[in-house]
Amino acid sequence: MPHALCGMVEGKCYVMIAIEDGDRPRRLSSAWARVLAAGTLLTLAGCMVPSDGPLTHEVLSAGADGRSYDIPQTRLVFDVVSIDQRVAGRVSAGKRPGLSSTFGFGGGGGTPVIGVGDRLEVTIFEAGPDGLFSTTERKSTSIPVVVQPDGHGQIPYVGSVRFAGMTIDSARATIVDALKAKAVEPDVIVSLATNASRTVSIQGDVNRSGILPLGLSGQHLSEVIALAGGASKPPYDTYVSLKRGGRTRSVLLQSLIDNPKDDIYVKPDDQIYVSYDPQTFAALGQTGKTGKIPFNAARLSLVEAAALAGGGNVTTADPKGYFVFRYEDEGVYRSVVGDDRFRDLIARGMMPDGEGRYPIVYRLDLAATQSYIVAQTFPVRNKDVVYLARHMATDLAKFLTIVSSGASAAYNIQRTADLL
């Protein structure tokens, strides 16, 4: 029995005609020759038909339900979820952990204290005309005080006062008590002339980066960015990173506008970095336009992303195979697939990325009319991969082209068979 075998060796496709052991070399009938030629050509086509990505059924079979439990643990485990109204709603409602979930919202009610480097203006009043700090011309004396590295500052007739850690009111009371036995009915006003201890640093894509002093009342993150002259790029393409106490979290500047809970109060010694990083998605497969495509907007739906990608190629695209590949936050993932399903995926070996997100593939069936409505509420996220699979008929068309152009190869195969 003759066989036509195809194999890949070092990236090249080879075809071999084999005869089973025990068969004597003999001349093949023309029928066998035609069968062998056709079979060989089919096998050859399987090696030669080019591919620009997986077919719809290949994506589905690569998901967790398409593989057995005994797969190697090095394989990526993910779920494939069809987009319907429920899924679109859950994904749209889900939000990434923000600044408040990491640092807390804080508050402006905390009483600021004096710190090292602060410059104070201490004004001392006396009732008598000839006191330590008063004359016949004026009833007060103003004394500038800079808090030294040891936290102390000098006041005449009082001596060294530890200002660091005191509030303005407690510093005033301390000076008044120290002067009661020395001055005539003394009274004191302490004001903060220069704030050097309660500062934040802000760098990056702002109009005036540097060290900014905080006011006596609490200030929101957006207010500090405004003090730095505001961001130099649009808020939907600008990220704000806050570092505090060894922890760092980044959010879009747009989220401070859309979600006031992320506009937290800053604290002294906070480090803020503002960076321009346009939101983009990658369009691949049978879309009219492939490559990295910018949002150019605060939000982008799947329908809008499809339009930006130029729609689909009507001659090659599979409308049932519109996919969104992404890493999803755990909370959203659980909301979409359910807690039991999520635990099952973890048991199978699903692993998070460096930011604690898990791989998932969303599928949209554009052959269903309702999909065009559902896709309007399904959000595309930054760095998503939007992939439109090719139709199976495309491979058949490519194969037929190969068959047509390979007629001479079939003739040569039959000639070879005639010589056996």
TrEMBL record:
| Name the record gives this protein | Capsule polysaccharide transporter
- Among the Pfam families in the record, one is Poly_export
Q: Which organism is it from?
A: Shinella yambaruensis
Q: InterPro entries this protein is in?
A: Poly_export, Poly_export_N
Instruction: Keywords in alphabetical order, please.
Output: Signal
Name all Polysaccharide export protein N-terminal domain ranges: 113-192
Q: Which gene is the coding source of this polypeptide chain?
A: rkpU_2
- The source's domain of life comes to Bacteria
Query: Which Gene3D superfamilies did the record assign?
Result: Outer membrane lipoprotein wza domain like (3.10.560.10), wza like domain (3.30.1950.10)
